[in-house]
């Protein structure tokens, strides 16, 4: 794996974690949204990651060991899915969206879970920034050898 491959992998992870953080922020912002455009409460969204496939048609001619070295080119977001867990039911008879029993369907967003996910995304982002800085430092040291 060369310097540019390492930078490419970390850069793809930075992009993926930024989108994950945007999605978490959207979930937190909509924690009290009881009515969306389709008339239901907001549904929590989750980001699904997958490894980017770095195989090229030429690599199909290489041995399995060589293909494994070329395989991963980082991470990408494959899709954003809505969490299908049931909505929370809250007793609030004065709420405009309350049913005849005074129950309101609230979003399936748990702020504590979202905060844990936010910390996780933040740490992953920081780790990839550190990896990029280490790669830059290694490249710089390699150039100093040639002087």
Question: Main β-sheet: number of strands, strand sense, barrel status?
Answer: 2 strands, antiparallel
- What is the β-strand count? 4
Query: What is the second-level CATH architecture of the largest domain?
Result: Orthogonal Bundle
Query: Uncertain spans, ≥5 residues at pLDDT below 50?
Result: 55-59
Radius of gyration over all CA atoms, rounded: 22 Å
Shape call: elongated
The helical percent reads 40-55%
Judged by helices, strands and strand pairing, the structural class is: alpha+beta
What spatial order of strands do you see in the largest sheet? 1-2
Q: Summarize the helix and strand pattern as letters.
A: HEHEEEH
Structural domains: how many: 2
Number of helices: 3
Round the mean pLDDT to the nearest integer and report it.
87
Percent strand equals 15-25%
General description of the model:
This protein is of the alpha+beta class. The protein has three helices and four strands. It has a two-stranded antiparallel ribbon with strand order 1-2. Helix 1 packs antiparallel against helix 3.
